[in-house]
Amino acid sequence: MPATDLALLVEAAEKAGDIACKYNGPDAKRWDKPDGAGPVTEADLEVDAFLKAFLTSARPDYGWLSEETEDTSDRLSDRNVFIIDPIDGTRSFAEGSRTWAHSLAIATDGVVTAAAVFLPQREMMFTAAQGAGAQLNQSAVYVSRETELTSATVLTARPALDAKHWKSGQPPAFRREYRPSLAYRLATVAQGQFDAMLTLRPSWEWDIAAGDLLIREAGGHCSDRTGQPLRFNNATPQLNGVLASNLTLHQNLLAHLNPDGPGLAPL
């Protein structure tokens, strides 16, 4: 990873924020993607076009994977790949909420090495580079030290509490909170604001890649729903759910999960 990769992502994220914030979310033109894949707005598309032009001109030998760009197999032969969600939390953006984010990552040989998650309307820039720790607005952040599930606050959607996902037929007695952006959920766990994040749905790589590195560099552990390490730039760019927290809490949650529980529809 070139030493300047993180600086490039930060610059791109800041410029993306300038573009997105030109729009008033509720007034932005909006479409529904085919096959129930969720909404997209004109802001998503403008940010995506900018990021692709800006980032690939700076790193022409890096592959490209983005939620709003038609995927091709070309990236599979690239050692380094940009993994981008131009606006993570499009529904929130379109509703006028401030909890949407730009999620930018670079994966090298399937492992994320640089990441930026930027919430421009909250002035929060989360960053991480492999081996250099995780930061919020240039100050170091660390995952929570909470180890007891009964005292933990877990960011997860309500369907994850369904009995079929848990060995005992019910989830442990943790407190549940929710945030609409997966990238933001992971970032808030990396900063220790919440103790864990759990999604049992098949999850798109662009929602998770940047947050995976934030968690790991903040001293935490990030895996799929079965405990396997996350690998990126897959032919089908989806992961088998995500579990993120400090290592002890991760192990405690994993011990309660039913590894054979049915997945849910993709986000």
Features:
7-stranded mixed β-sheet, single chain, 6 helices, alpha+beta, 267 residues, Fructose-1,6-Bisphosphatase, Chain A, domain 1
Description:
With 267 residues, the chain is α+β, with helices and mostly antiparallel strands. The chain has two domains: 5-140, Fructose-1,6-Bisphosphatase, Chain A, domain 1; 149-256, D-Maltodextrin-Binding Protein, domain 2. The chain is built from six helices and 14 strands. Strand 5 (101-108) and strand 6 (111-119) form a beta hairpin.
- Work out the helicity level: 25-40%
The total count of strands amounts to 14
Q: What's the CATH H-level superfamily name of the largest domain? A: Fructose-1,6-Bisphosphatase, subunit A, domain 1
Within the largest sheet, what's the order of strands? 3-4-5-6-7-8-9
Whole-number count of domains: 2
End-to-end C-alpha gap = 30 Å
Write down the Rg.
Answer: 17 Å
Main beta sheet strand tally, sense and closure? 7 strands, mixed
Output mean pLDDT. 93
Structural class: alpha+beta
Q: DSSP strand (E) fraction?
A: 25-35%
Low-confidence stretches: none
Shape: globular
CATH architecture of the largest domain: 2-Layer Sandwich
Figure out the total of helices: 6
Pfam families: Inositol_P
Cofactor: Mg(2+)
Organism: Tritonibacter litoralis
GO biological process, one term: signal transduction
